[in-house]
């Protein structure tokens, strides 16, 4: 069934490439996580006799991808997006904010050591520490700076390379995926690279993620090097466990709590001392309460979305995801490819983006005066 799901996804990707004439388009950008972190790794594990198929998981993935595709066809009148004014001031402000928020993180990074393994241990510590909000904001600021600088110069500079390396070696594998996808999309949109060449970026991204994980892992004697690297990609397995528990009634639905807490979890604990420890990780604490208390937080993939309202959540999330990606892409195309429109298109809409955009527009208004 998972192989059928993969063929279905590839077919929709092919249709979207024909429609947009872009490899990195609203549809393919929306399904990158499901394809690269859930479907492909699990198929490899199945071929290695190290993984099992779950019809329920396959069905949920297929529904999600299908409604993302349908969502890209929904239309509403486009809003006008005003450009930022005084980009130099905005870049300077972002750099200063980046440096200030990095200060509490640097001692912990040095404590774990500047090695691949040390970076991963730093990441596993910091995301469950009081500095988790700082870490997430720093990653977003790095991505914002890379995009703003690239769109401004329309080329890769030394500063962009340094910022990209910092983001890649932040310890987060999602950061690797994010920066490669962002660069590929920027290059395709602003430098007119043929999508046929960009097609090779998908296996490169996957192998980078696998290789990066292996360098951070300790090889065990009873599994191969490749299986050890692939052990990180257990999202499909964990997703299947969670979905089965919901369907069998072993755990109750969250009725919006997961989605709501994903917005508020970024608020630092020194600003909200009574913030529940499971904010953003409620499903983890429900399924693995003891492990979660010790900092073990596996990803449950699409089960996070399913946890709120079941299949209704999957359908609504798919439709809204596809709609907003296509909506902001249409704005991007009609705005002479401005940096504001590109940020809205490429970056996930969250509380960090909302706050940064508010700050940037405030700086723009000061410039007008």
Largest sheet: none
Give me the Rg, rounded.
21 Å
* Proportion of beta-strand residues: under 5%
How far do the termini sit from each other? 61 Å
The computed structural class is mainly alpha
Strand/helix succession: HHHHHHHHHHHHHHHHHHHHH
What's the number of helices? 21
**Poorly predicted runs:** none
Helix content: 55-70%
Mean pLDDT: 82
Task: Say what oligomer this is.
Answer: single chain
Rough outline:
globular
The counted number of beta strands is 0
Layout: helices, strands, pairs:
Elements: H1 2-20, H2 26-30, H3 32-47, H4 55-71, H5 87-102, H6 106-112, H7 116-126, H8 132-153, H9 158-168, H10 173-191, H11 195-198, H12 201-215, H13 225-230, H14 235-247, H15 257-264, H16 282-287, H17 289-293, H18 303-309, H19 311-333, H20 339-346, H21 351-368
Give a written overview of the molecule.
This protein is mainly alpha-helical and 369 residues long. The protein has 21 helices and no strands. Helix 5 (87-102) runs antiparallel to helix 8 (132-153) and helix 10 (173-191) packs antiparallel against helix 12 (201-215). The relative contact order is 0.15. The mean pLDDT is 82.
Give a quick precis of the structure.
It contains 21 helices and no strands. With 369 residues, it is mostly helical. α4 packs parallel to α19 (311-333).
């Amino acid at each position: 069934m998972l192989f059928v799901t993969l063929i279905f996804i590839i077919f929709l990707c092919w249709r979207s490439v024909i429609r947009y004439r872009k490899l990195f388009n609203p549809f393919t950008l929306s399904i990158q996580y499901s394809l690269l972190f859930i479907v492909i790794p699990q198929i490899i594990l199945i071929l290695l006799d190290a993984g099992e198929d779950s019809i329920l998981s396959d069905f949920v993935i297929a529904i999600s991808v299908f409604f993302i595709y349908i969502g890209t066809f929904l239309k509403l009148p486009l809003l006008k997006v005003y450009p930022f004014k005084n980009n130099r001031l905005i870049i300077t402000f972002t750099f200063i904010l980046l440096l200030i928020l990095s200060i509490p993180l640097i001692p912990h990074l040095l404590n774990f050591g500047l090695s691949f393994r040390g970076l991963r241990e730093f990441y596993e510590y910091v995301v469950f520490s009081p500095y988790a909000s700082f870490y997430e904001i720093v990653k977003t600021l790095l991505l914002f700076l890379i995009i703003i600088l690239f769109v401004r110069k329309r080329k890769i500079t030394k500063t962009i390379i340094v910022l990209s390396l910092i983001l890649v070696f932040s310890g987060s594998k999602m950061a690797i995926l994010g920066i490669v996808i962002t660069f590929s999309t920027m290059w395709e949109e602003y430098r007119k690279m043929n999508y046929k060449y960009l097609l090779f970026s998908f296996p490169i991204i996957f192998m980078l993620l696998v290789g990066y994980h292996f360098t951070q892992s300790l090889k065990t004697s009873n599994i191969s090097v490749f299986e050890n690297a692939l052990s990180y990609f257990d999202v499909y397995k964990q997703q299947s466990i969670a979905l089965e528990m919901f369907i069998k009634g072993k755990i109750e639905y969250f009725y919006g709590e997961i989605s709501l807490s994903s917005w508020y979890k970024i608020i630092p604990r020194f600003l909200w001392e009574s913030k529940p420890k499971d904010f953003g990780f409620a499903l983890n604490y429900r399924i693995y309460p003891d492990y979660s208390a010790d900092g073990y937080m596996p990803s449950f993939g699409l089960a996070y979305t399913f946890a709120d309202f079941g299949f209704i959540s999957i359908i609504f999330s798919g439709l809204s995801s596809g709609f907003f990606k296509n909506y902001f892409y249409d704005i991007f195309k009609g705005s002479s490819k401005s940096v504001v429109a590109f940020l809205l298109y490429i970056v996930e809409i969250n509380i960090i983006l909302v706050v940064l955009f508010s700050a940037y527009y405030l700086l723009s208004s000061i410039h007008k005066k």
